[in-house]
Design goal:
Layout: E1 12-15, E2 19-24, H1 40-51, E3 61-62, E4 71-77, H2 80-91, E5 96-104, E6 111-121, E7 126-129, E8 138-150, E9 153-160, H3 167-174, E10 197-205, E11 212-216, E12 244-248
Length: 253
């Protein structure tokens, strides 16, 4: 399924002169596809160009890239200054990244820390768990908590320590809990669009004001059919009411 390159399809969660935060749908690449195929970045550029009547090229820098089948929060910098400052936050681990995953199996223990070494299989375009001494191996760390058991499925909240390619998909599947719909990593179940992995939230420091931004994205409708309720409210109420946004003031001296 292809997403039409229409800026009106952009689901904006937060926007100011420095940042643009959107809720990415499934089946849409964040960026980097062959010419002619739509990407979230291209749609966002067209959105900014039309909304602000900007001539020429529009600068946007993707700060949090998601795999095409994954939904949820994507942070985009609107200026090079904001991009530099946000890149530093991601580099130093100052950003909190939270995901929700619906997986096969009854996950136990209820909470645990997963630490593995991962390597890239270029031929099959996927990742593997590898030994730490393999050339190119990178450490992958995450913490999960089981939020709910749904029959023979489990709803997990995942906090990323590192941001390796396909990290959550691989580490959970390796433990026998493939994400629903993720055939690449062993799921035999269908999911309406993409896979049941959602970038639920980001916590960052605003690049110019220094305020703490807590951003959350509503779940796709398909999650409700599996018994996962979304507490973030109804859709279609305007960007200021999309998802959840909490802004904390700059700490005093």
């Amino acid at each position: 399924m292809l997403i039409a390159m229409n800026p009106t399809t952009l689901d904006v969660l937060y926007e100011d002169n420095h940042l643009l935060v959107v809720n990415k749908p499934a089946a849409l690449a964040t960026m980097g596809t062959p010419a002619g195929r739509p990407t979230l970045l291209a749609i966002a550029k067209e959105y900014v160009k039309q909304k602000y009547a900007k001539p020429g090229n529009v600068y946007l820098g993707v700060m949090s890239r998601l795999d095409a089948p994954v939904t949820g929060v994507v942070l985009i910098a609107r200026t090079s200054k904001a991009a530099r400052r946000m890149t530093e936050q991601f580099r130093t681990g100052a950003v909190e990244k939270t995901y929700w995953a619906l997986v096969e199996g009854n996950v136990a223990p209820e909470t645990d820390r997963c630490v593995d070494w991962v390597g890239h299989d270029e031929r099959h375009r996927r990742m593997h768990i590898v030994g730490p001494k393999l050339p190119g191996a990178k450490e992958a760390r995450l913490l999960y908590k089981r939020l709910k058991t749904l029959g023979d499925m489990s709803l997990l909240e995942v906090l990323l320590d590192t941001g390796r390619k396909h990290q959550i998909r691989l580490q959970l599947a390796d433990r026998g809990w493939p994400i629903i719909g993720d055939r690449k990593y062993g799921s035999n179940r269908r999911w309406p669009a993409g896979i049941a992995l959602h970038a639920r939230g980001l916590v960052v420091t605003h690049p110019t004001s220094g305020e703490r931004l807590e951003l959350e994205a509503p779940l796709p409708d398909a999650w409700a059919a599996c018994g996962v309720a979304d507490r973030l409210g109804a859709r279609g109420q305007g960007p200021e009411k999309r998802g959840k946004l909490k802004i904390s003031p700059v700490p005093g001296p």
